[in-house]
Structure formats: structure tokens, C-alpha cells
Amino acid sequence: MPNPVVISIVLLLCSNVFMTFAWYAHLKELHGKPWIIAALISWGIALFEYLLQVPANRIGYTALSVGQLKIMQEVITLSIFVPFSVFYLREPLKLDYLWVGLCLFLAVYFMFREKF
Q1: How many CB atoms lie under 10 A from the CB of residue 43?
Q2: Phi then psi for 90, rounded to 5 degrees?
Q3: For residue range 94-108, what is the model confidence (pLDDT) as tens digits?
Q4: How confident is the model at residue 1 (pLDDT cuts 50, 70, 90)?
Q5: CA–CA separation, 47 vs 45, rounded Å?
Q6: Which tens digit of pLDDT belongs to each residue from 12-46?
Q7: Which of 25, 40, 69, 85 has the most beta carbons within 10 angstroms of its beta carbon?
Q8: Could you give the angle at which helices 35-60 and 4-20 cross, rounded to 10 degrees?
Q9: Alpha-carbon gap, residue 48 to 80, rounded angstroms
Q10: d(Cα 1, Cα 16) in Å, to the nearest integer?
């Protein structure tokens, strides 16, 4: 059987692409529309996020603690959000992302140190 951690990571990566678009793409694409339109479209996109995220967490929970899943999710979220922000929304790349990444690296270390 495939490794549940690997399956969880792949599903969470895909899930986060949908989540990031659901949460932020409307800022660029629908800025002139009423907020309710943006919310409904985002909600529709988020459905696909949940269809991937829920199984990812259920599969991952067979091998990881909920804390480990959450930290893994945060690292994945940042790894998707930064390129999205820079390349899609044309936001400037800030050094702050590096500092956040270092903090998450430490969070990963402390959450997974038993497995190292």
C-alpha cells in the first residue's frame, strides 16, 4: 500500500492550489463585482479544496498526529501561496516570506523531531 504521508502531502498540495485560488484570486479577477458574487464563486472553488483536503487529513491521520498534519499543512500553504502571490497577483517578493519560512522550518523540526 502507498505511504499515507506521501498521499496526504500530494492531496494537500492539490487542495491548497484550490484553496489559494478560492481565497485570493477574486481580488484580481472579480474586484469590480459585488462581494457576494466573489463569495459564491470562491465557495464553489473551495468545494474542490474540501474534496481533496478532507481525505488528505483522514489518510494522513493514520500515520501522523493532528499537530503534525497542521504544521505540514502550513508549510504546504506557504509553498503554494508565495508563488501565487508573486506570479499571479504580481505582489512583490518580500524578505518576510523567508523569515516566515524559517519559523515554519523550526515548527516542522519541533513537531517532527521524534521521527528524525
Answers
A1: 10
A2: 60, 35
A3: 999 999 999 999 999
A4: low
A5: 5
A6: 999 999 999 999 999 999 999 999 999 999 999 99
A7: 69
A8: 180
A9: 16
A10: 25
Query: Cell numbers of 18, please?
Result: 484550490
DSSP tag of 113: G
Helix, strand, coil percentages, rounded to 5, for the chain: 85, 0, 15
Write out the three cell numbers for 94: 518580500
- Phi and psi at residue 108, in whole multiples of 5°? -60, -45
**Helical spans, DSSP H, in the chain:** 4-20, 26-29, 35-60, 66-83, 95-112
Taking the model in full, what pTM does it have? Answer: 0.89
Q: Which three cell numbers stand for residue 30?
A: 472579480
**CA 103 to the chain's CA centroid:** 16
Provide the 8-state DSSP code for 22.
Answer: I
Single-letter amino acid, residue 30:
L
The whole-angstrom separation of Cα 81 and Cα 37 is 23
